[in-house]
Amino acid sequence: MAAPAARRIVGAEVPIPGSDKLRWIDLTVPSSPSPAPASPSDPFVCVPPRAASGCHIILSGDSQYYLCWRIYEEHQNVLEVIELCASKEFPSSGLRLVFQEALCPFAFLCEREGRRRGELVYLLYVLTVSGVALLCHLRSPFSYVSGSILHQDDIVEFNLQTHAQSAKVTAVTAKPGCLVIGRQDGSICSYSLGKLAPDSPAFLNELRDDAGIGRLWTLMSRTKAVGPVQDIVATVVNERDLLFVLHSDGNLRIWDNHKKLLNYNVCSNDVDGHPSRLWVGESDDDEETISLAVLHQNTVVQDCDHVAVYGFNFSAGERFLFSSEPSISTIPLLEGKLVDMKIGTDKLWILKEFGSMFYETLQYDFDTEKIFSYVLQEDAISEQLFQSSDNSLDDLVWTADSMFSSFKEQAFNFISSMFLRRLLQPGVNNCSALRETLYEHKKFLSDSEIQSLTANGLQKEILSIIEQEGSSQTASATVYHWKKFSARYLHNWCLNNRPYGLLLDTNNEVFGLIRKGSFSLFRCLESVEMLIYGSSDELRSLDGLGMDFLLDDISDFELLDEVLRCMGHIHHLLGRSSTAIYYESLISSVISSDEIASQIIKMLETGFSPQSSSSLITLLGMDTYVERRQAAHKSQRKFSVEMLLSFHKLQSRSTSWSAVFDVIEKFMKCLNTNITVQEHESKRVCNVNSMLMVQATSQVARTMFECAFDLFLFLSYLVGVGGQVSLLQSDVARIKLKLFPMIQDILGQWIVLHFVGITPTSPSTIRDFSYQLSSLQLGKADELPLHRKLGCSDFTLACLLDFPKSPGGDVLSPCFPSPAEIINLVRMFSSSIMSGSNVEYVQTFLGSTLNLSAVLVRNGQYEAAQSLLGILETYLNHEEVSQAGQDADIACSAYLHLYGFCLLMLAYDEANLILRESKVHDAIRCFFRAASGHEAPKALQKLSLETGFQVSGECRSISLWRLHYYEWAMQIFEQHSMSEGACQFALAALEQVDIIVDVYNGNEAEGLPETATMIKGRLWANVFKYSLDLKHFRDAYCAIDSNPDDDSKYVCLRRFIIVLCELGETKVLCNGEIPFTDLVEKVEQELFWKAERSDLSSRPNLYKVLYSFEAYRNNWRKAAAYMYRYFVRLNREGNAGGSHQLSHTLQERLHALSAAINALQLVDPSFAWLDSVCEADDQISPSKRPRNLLMENSAFGTDSELSRLQFCVDVEILEKEYTLTEAQYMLSTVKSTYKFSESQSVEALMDVLINENLYDLAFTIVLKFWKESGMKRELEHVFSSIAQQCCPNRAGKSGRNLTDSQQLLLLPSSEDDAWDINTKSIAVAHQLQGSCNWETLELYLEKYKDLHPRLPVIVAETLLYTDPEIELPLWLVQMFKTNKSGNKTISWGMSGKEADPAALFRLYINYGRHAEATNLLVEYLESFASSRPVDVLHRKKMSAAWFPYTAIERLWCRLEEMQSAGHNVDQCDRLKKLLHGAQMSHLQQVVVDSEDVLSSVGGGGGQGMESQSS
Question: Is residue 517 within 8 Å of residue 432, measured between CB atoms?
């Protein structure tokens, strides 16, 4: 028994992207009820339940299909079937068959014979645990409807328990047309299921040793019966169907139909353990050999299972014979249990499980008897998510604060971007695992919802979880929470992707793995990967490493070995976190990669030095913090010592450091992508093979990048400790000037390859119809599926590239590639990417990266192209590269052009306004910098397909080329609604036109497509348009004024006015911000033309704009004319609406009239008039007949006034119109039922106003329209009406509270565009004091009695007439008793003006108010008699007092008449007595006064005369 060699890693698992996103078609398989259902404790089929899987290869013409199936351990009644084709896309759906009971862990799939052409029908053989064998006919492609039931005609069913032989089934297998079972009694039965009818004699074929006479002989000899069948394998050897049967007693038997070819006992060898499973490899018909493998399970000692490999020779003659002494090789499994095994002609592949969720894939070579290992996805994902050890991620937690000490604000976004990029890359991203992880964090999303999310959508969902953890405080906290999330995700990934079995295609040497949730293949390692994963002893064994032509002798091997050991020390100290951070700094450009590199090198030299221990103590705990700190210090000291020892070894083994650097240079040639110009045919495809190649390329690229970065850190550390290891200045110069640029170039190549391999494409954004039309890719049917896949998380950027085709490998092959072919395809693909260039004269990393960016731009992947160009920018910024001359200049121009275009496209889709503006500014800057290069025309001539910039013909000068470039940039910014950039490039193009004209001394240049004037006119018109879009109105006007083309200028001016009106920015025209100079008249004409042709309801109101326009220039007469024109149009057109619109129209009329009045009042009185409306009509519409618009629309006015309005309109007429309009408006606000009509008179309007209690307006109309007697007449009419409303019998028409806010009036400003006028905001010019009709009457009477003194008489008479029983109010009576100054006139009798006490006395008499009349007379008589001493002399003068004696006489007669008629006899008698007594007293007083006067004249005349004169 040979001992296995050390397990060297020779390959890695490559997952097939998209295999976790299958949409399952659930199909129920009906079956008859079993007569003897299987008992869970004692099933009829005794095959132990387990997760099972398999792959069957179907050849169909030029295509080859891989039918993969799997049975879940937790769902034994469910069988999943997936049909794979290497030359087609990964299927979007699979078939999930749901059976009525649990299945035996077995299935066999094959193609049905005799099918029609173009039809694929598969046969599926399964066996239930109750012994029911099923044969299902499945259509391909799977066109079933999910949730349906498989048709009964497609099912063949046979119950094994119904047969006479009812021993339990212990093993099962199948071959086309036949199901083979092994029973507990050792018998083997073959059933022609689906081929023959069950009642056919040939349906059952039983294989036994005791058939016929042999059976009788066995019974007589009593030989030992064969043991239960343990396993059965059906295979074809030299075109003969054979059965290999393993029994539990160790007997291995080979059958050919009814004939036993071999009986060999595998327990006869020195192999411990019980034989349990059997595998048969492909036969070598030429060598006539075949290999078998038997698993021996040790039932005594745990983890001591063995696999015995038997090599049998056979003779394929007439008698098919097998050798009875095979070759034997034993492979100890050491630990773990075997999950699956596949055997080939010279190799054996083993899948083992260690405990829970730990697996290992081994390869055993029959010739060398060595065991090799493969890297599984579990290990790769652990490394990707920093979960491979307990220290690597903790190192990142430990070092995060110190590494990001200068970038605390960017730390959270940077770290999150790093984790998200790794988490969501193909091969790591798994829908089921992600869904379960999100579910654990209270994010409830279904598989379909997760699959429908784009990469950005998934990032947002995950990032929200980390933000909720509060991890944005410190960098270490951010890393800590990401660690927890990644750990849970890795756990769920392992649960959902457990390996079920191996996949093997021996004809094509294809080796893969079937997992619970995905599929994958294995690849060989690249030579550098073998160095990294291998040991130092293997370095000297150069077989297969491809380095024998690079290293000269053994000393070079030793030096390289020591260099690799130093790189290992660095990698062990820093883990993978430093490489990940440096990688992210190159991609995201959030933090400078040079800053990150310096921080990492600083940590190598000085060790970890956390800036703040508090956050680490909070996260890790004090004990763990102290332990980590001590371990970090110890590791740093160990690292320093080991590095110094290695440096001394390098010095001792080499003559100088130059020899070491020579070896490093040779090693870097292996790290390079070997850029060579490939002549292979290439084609863009998207199939399983291409996706595999992309995934494998990203794996190799990541390993290469990490190795190159470790080498960079090694050289940087060497420079830092150069003084301690005798490093010369020339050596330092060589490192910095030669080795560092080479490493930067290698890092750039591999990071680009890795980036395009893992970065998902972005979905195409739908911009406009032209973009959608171009995206249809008419005539390119092959590219349509690719555009549909944009945005899928597993469709990466590399899938958009062309894939090479050569004899060494072809992605269009119908077969899966072998491990060696995969790595060959990776080399070809990497070389083809890095050798392509569209930039002339640039065939380096610069050119290939630019070409790759151009391809991404062509496919709309602007964000990815921006990241690639960011990497290129880092490369260009290095001092060594910046001195590269013409190539660098060409590359720089192309880079800036593409980078600006990407920024422009990204800005168009950016929702954040601040970021959008920033990207636009950066894009403008990039385009200007791209055009400034002297090699720009050469650099951009091959990028027309990507960006659309193309110059037809040859430009004679750089200025002419820049003119075309700036015009293109202007157009591209305009297409994406970015007027700021378009404006800048239009101005830049104008500058180039001036330069070109200056060069030709003012003559027209030959290269210009148009005249300079035409170009300038067009460009200035564009500048105007862009400035207008930006609302830079002053700049827009300046562009109009600068335009040399008059036609274009006036078109722009008209557009300027139209846009200002649409935007409501007409104040720009009126506030003097723009000096219109010689365009004032043109602006006025355009405004007036637009005003006349605009609807009156349009906003802004252009008549008001014209008013403001003229008012600013003190043209008050024109301003008044425009507002009056507005009033005329309102009269003519504004009455079409309802009452609500009518109210607004009337208010607008008021505003127009008030503005016109105010403007005319500022004009010299001799010019304060307006042209007649008819003349204005002639100017407005010359083709129409002149009309007197004012006459037609004036509802009220005299004939003489209307005749004047035909010629001119002055302030007085405007004021009258204002008054009438105000009256109409107030009536509309109180919802009056009054209907306006041209036939109505002012008097009728007055009546309506009085009825609506609008007295102020009524009085205003009276004062405006009547003078002198007419005015008095109308005042009497108004007051009469008011007085009538005060009478009690008119209480139903009680007065309205005139101080109500509804009576307020406020004219709107020119800025008021709202139609919904709140009448409560209207102000009254004269607020009325009082809350009732009496108070109203008193107020107005006090106000207007001076204009017409007889008004109190009219009021009193109206009151007495209206209500004979009314008692006149005291204030009204006092108006009769007092003079103008407010003094009573009682002492001088009842004489006065029109409203005197005598008039009141007469009114009393006229209306039968005899008591009031008597009392009034008695009051005045007594007052006359009781004059003050100072008034006695005056009383005694001649005619000093007067009383209405005639009226008194009438009163006396009235009293007598009433008394005679018998009415109020007593009252009349009392009044007569009172009146008689008062008169007698008055007459006596008059007699006395007369005598006094006579006596004074006779006796003291001189004194009397003197007194009188005084």
Answer: yes
* Entry field: residues in the chain: 1510
Q: Is the pLDDT of residue 1194 over 50?
A: no
CB 427 within 8 A of CB 521: no
Distance (Å, whole) CA 1510 – CA 1491: 21
3 state DSSP class of 99? coil
Residue 77 confidence (pLDDT):
92
What is the structure's pLDDT at 173?
Answer: 94
CA distance 451 to 490: 19
pLDDT band of 1381, cuts 50, 70, 90: low
Who's near 1378: CB < 8 A, 6+ residues apart? 1384, 1385
The structure tokens 């618009």 sit at 1189
Q: What pLDDT does residue 1312 have? A: 39
Phi, psi angles (nearest 5°) of residue 1364? -60, -20
Helix (H, G, I), strand (E, B) or coil at 142: coil
Q: What is the dihedral of CA 1183, 1184, 1190, 1192, to 10 degrees?
A: 180
Q: From CA 606, how far away is CA 1039, in angstroms rounded?
A: 63
Looking at residue 40, the DSSP 8-state letter turns out to be S
Classify burial at 1128, counting beta carbons within 10 Å of its beta carbon; exposed 0-12, middle 13-18, buried 19 or more.
Answer: buried
CA–centroid distance for 546 within its chain? 50
More confident residue, 46 or 114: 46
Distance CA(929)–CA(899), nearest Å, equals: 11
Distance, in Å, from the CA atom of 284 to the CA atom of 292, rounded to the nearest integer, reads 12
Asked whether 1393 and 1446 are in contact (CB, 8 A), the reply is no
Q: What is the pTM of this model?
A: 0.77
| Host H or E run for residue 27 | strand 23-28
Span 1018-1039, average pLDDT: 92
d(CA 216, CA 232): 27
The amino acid sitting at 833 is I
Amino acid 303: pLDDT? 67
pLDDT for residue 408? 72
Local structure of residue 1170 (DSSP, 8 states) = E
Tell me the per-residue pLDDT of 765-798, one tens digit each, with 9 for 90 and over: 655 444 455 445 444 444 555 677 888 888 889 8
What lies within 8 Å, CB to CB, of 992 at 6+ separation is 959, 960, 962, 963, 966
CA-based Rg of the chain, rounded to a whole angstrom? Answer: 55
Element counts in the chain: helices (H) and strands (E): 55, 36
